[in-house]
Structures are given as structure tokens and as C-alpha cells.
Amino acid sequence: MKLGVPEPPRDQNGQPVNVNDWDGPQDPGNPLNWSLLSRIYHVTCPALFGFAVTFGTSVYSPAVFDIMKDFDVSRTAALTGLTVYTLGLGFGPVLSAPISELHGRKIVYLISSPICMLFTLGAGFSKSFASFIVCRFFAGLTGSPALAVGAGSSVDVVAPQHRAVASSFFIMAPFFGPSIGPIVGGFVAQYKSWRWTQWCIIFITLAVYLMSLPMKETYKPIILKRRARKQGIVVPKTATNEIAVIWSILLQNLVKPMRMLLIEPVVLFFSLYTAFAFGILFLLFAAIPYTFQRPPYNFTTSQSGLVFIAVGVGVVLASVTNLFIDKYIYQKIHRRTVAEGKSHVPPEHRLYSSMIGSVGIPIGLFWFAWTADKGYHWAIPVVATIPFAWGNLCLFISTAMFSIDTYGPQHGASAIAANGIVRYTLGAVFPLFTIQMYTNLGIGWATSLLGFLSILMLPIPFVFFKWGPKIRERSFYSPLK
């Protein structure tokens, strides 16, 4: 052996073996070769974890008045229970990435969810407002790793050409959680107490956790390492400090997304646009009760929660839209590109959904603004939330896939991480000023202000569709020059 060059790993007979790759394209250990049912299961469980943790954001909102009364705090203070939980969702994935890279995906699910349930239990039993806020923050922080690791699990088990279907389903689940939360929370807050909103989070998370226990590891390096160990293959150990490795990855996961946010136009503009739309979605958690629990509607807490059924309809329609565009537009372009001998489809063809959805957002906002302000029949402003929610999710799915295609697997995760930090930060902040804005401007002009801002951002996907190749030529991170 040459000095400084480690010996290759060997099997029990002393023969060199490759532990860094699969044993050919048909290797049964490769998650891409698992049965269809198994792959569906390994996409569904992470999606349900995403649903459970985002359900925890909005199920809280109908209980704000109970929180105010029980802890003797203002409405803005009570809304910080939503804010800190959402901030935890934004920064939790930064902590989970180093663990998943060193120890695999499954261990993140097995460890993070029970800790999240314990903090949620602490929030439900809190006797002081300070302990309640602390527990809510750490519940969001420890529950959110499933959002980031789940995306990786989806990539592990789904081939690139079919990834749009899995991505639509996986992304729909975290958007569906905030749609269902106010429905459940409305009835719980009206007929039980705010503490039951926390119990509901535990019930759902526990059910998903138990369902996920049979999951197998999907992360390639961990599968190969365990296979080698099982076969008695000697893998040379590296003199690395695990804590130092985790710290290095942690810094990279914080610094690199922030750097891309500052120097990459794709990351900056799409993060701002999707974060703004996401912030409006969270703003609705306060705006809808404010609108419908006042004259002329006079809804009860549970009735105002039912308004979010329309938001859920918009989320489902957005997923259907993305699947339709993928099947009838993108896949045709993909087949034509392959037939021409080209290696990849230009990422700009991922933007059709965002260009359509960007129109739905202001339509829904202006529709809601003036029908609710003029006191039209409740069904008319309720239906207005459908095009908004539809456009919101169309925008996010499309731009997320565009970012991944633009930056590839090496840098795409950092682009999505930057998007998540900005998105959940605005989602945390927007509800704090909602009531003041609606009180001072009125329902019509407050919602119209958001509509006008969304019109200013509407050209963003169209600009990148037209000039995307030129913008990518100047990118520091995109491999597609």
C-alpha cells in the first residue's frame, strides 16, 4: 500500500469491492428498484409527517381568544404562539440535515417526532404564557426536520422522470395541513378548550409515527455502508470527528443558502415571491375569523374554521393542475429532448404552472376583498379563497422544481433551504400585523393592498421563462450554463 493512500475495502475473502455504488442498475437494494407499493409507502409517510407538523400551525389560530383569556395577554401576544412555531419550522431543517447525511433519513423521523410530541404535550399543560411560547417554538423546531428529510426520501425512491408526481403529492401535504387545521381547531376551541388543539396535534403525529415504523432506510450512502457491514466487508475508517463534521455541515446549511439568496437572482426573487404568497396564507388564519365573525356574517368559531375547506379545495386543484401540465406538456417536451439527443430539458419548462398560478393569486385577493367588504352572501368571498390557494401552490411547486433543475442535486437543496427560511419567516410575521391592518384599512383595502403587491410580483416567473438561460449563464452555482 502506498503511504497515505488507504486500502480499498475488501470482502471476507480479501477481494476488493466497491461500497460506493450499487451493483448495477437492477440492484435490489436500490430504492428505485423497490416494488411500486413500497415506493408509494415511502413517499406517503414523509408527506403525512409534513401534514402533521404544518397542521400544528393553523389548528392553533381559532383558539387565540381562549389563549388571551386564559393567560391574560393581548391578541398580538397570543398570536406569537403561531409565530414561534412557524419560525421553528423554518430553522429546524438546518439542524436535521447534518444528522440525515451522517446517519440516514429514518433516524430523523424516529427521533424528531417523539421530541415534537413531548414539547407539544408541554405546551398543552403549560401554566404560564412564557412556558407555552417556549414549548411551541421547540415543538415546531423538532417537528420540522420531517419537511426537509421527507423531500430527500422522495428523491431517493422516485426516478427523475416521475418526480413531478411525487413532488406534487409531497408538497401538497404541508399545504393541506394549514387548510385542515382551522377546521378542526374551530370545533375544538368552541366546544372544548385551547389545550385540545395541542392534543389534536399529538393524536395526528402519533398516528403517522406508528404508521412510519416499518419504513426502511432510503439514503444511498447509509444503505451501502450497512450492506458492507452485514457482508463482513472491511471499510477503512476515516479519522474524522463527527461533531466537527456536523458543525461543518451546519455552517454550510446556514451560510450557503444565505449566500445564494444574496447573489443568485433565481433564489432571491422566487424566495421573495413564494414567501409573500405563503405569508398571505398564514395571514388568512387571522383575517378570516376577523372577517366572518363580525357583522353581517356573525359566524361562530367553528363556522369560520369551515371557511378553510375552500382553501383545501384550492390546494387539491393546484396538485391536479401540476400533474396535468407535467403529463401533457412537460413529458412531451422531455421525450422530444431525449429523441434529439440532448441531456436535459431546459428548467424554464417547469414554470408553466407558476405563470398560470401567479394570475390566480391577485384574482382571489381582489375577489375576497370587495365581496367581503360589501357584505355579499358568505359563499361568494369564501369561494374567492379557492383561486388564491390554487395559485399559491401552483407557484410554489413550479418554482421549487425549477430551482432543483437549475442548480442540480448539489446546490438545489440549498436553494430550497433558502426559500424555506424566507417563506416561514414571513409566514410567522404576517399574522402579527393582520388585525391592525384590517382594523385601520378595512377588509377591502387591506386585502387589496396585498392584491396590488401580488400584481407587482406577477411578472417574475414570466421574466425567468423568457430570460432564464441568460440569467443562468451568470450563475455561480448552476451547472446548466
From TrEMBL:
Keywords: Membrane, Transmembrane, Transmembrane helix
A Pfam entry, by short name: MFS_1
GO molecular function: spermidine transmembrane transporter activity; spermine transmembrane transporter activity
Its membrane topology: Multi-pass membrane protein
PROSITE patterns: MFS (PS50850)
Gene3D superfamilies named in the record: MFS general substrate transporter like domains
UniProt xrefs under InterPro entries: MFS (IPR011701), MFS_dom (IPR020846), MFS_trans_sf (IPR036259)
GO cellular component, one term: plasma membrane
Membrane-spanning segments: 40-65, 77-95, 107-125, 131-152, 164-184, 196-215, 266-292, 304-325, 351-370, 376-404, 416-437, 443-465
Domain of life: Eukaryota
Region of interest (Disordered), residue spans: 1-24
SUPFAM superfamilies found in the cross-reference section: MFS general substrate transporter (SSF103473)
Major facilitator superfamily (MFS) profile domain segment(s): 42-471
Sequence similarity: Belongs to the major facilitator superfamily.
Protein name: MFS general substrate transporter
